[in-house]
Amino acid sequence: MQRELPGGIALDTAYVGTRGVHLQLVRFWNQVDRLTGVRPYRGFTEFRYRDAGDSSVYHSWQTSVRKRFSRGLIFGANYTWASAYSYTDDSDLLLPSSVQNIYNVSADKGPPGDFVRHVLVSDFIYELPIARLANSLLSRNLFAGWQISGIFTARTATP
Predict the structure, then answer these.
(1) Which of 23, 40, 44, 21 is closest to 32 using CA atoms?
(2) In the chain, what are the domain boundaries?
(3) Do 10 and 2 form a contact (C-beta atoms < 8 A)?
(4) Residue 92 has what pLDDT?
(5) Rg of the chain's alpha carbons, rounded to an integer?
(6) What share of the chain is helix, strand, coil (3-state, %, to 5)?
């Protein structure tokens, strides 16, 4: 949803959600039973098995505000609140991590390792007034469009 508020403030807000299904999951089969201390298949060691048993969910609410002031100053702020869950930290093609208990994958459901819940990014752009102060056409064209800008980012830590 995008709105133009009074005073020349532009507000943009949206919900973003994604769901990944049938992602790669690594399971270590033939693990030693924690209670009996015996492997289910004697004579074999533990081995890695990959299947499409992982899934992930991401939800976020993203809001942006932008204000253009007089004399060439523009200010913007962006905020994202997010929520994400998966069974493993990284469901990729290289080396995804394994679940703790291959018979109860849902016990490992939680936020991924690189998940960040809150992100705030603000920025400014200021067009330098040196072109307006110049007295010749050459110096006006030479100094036109020079800007100073900056970005500030704040976010919560990863879990």
Answers:
(1) 40
(2) 2-155
(3) yes
(4) 56
(5) 26
(6) 10, 50, 35
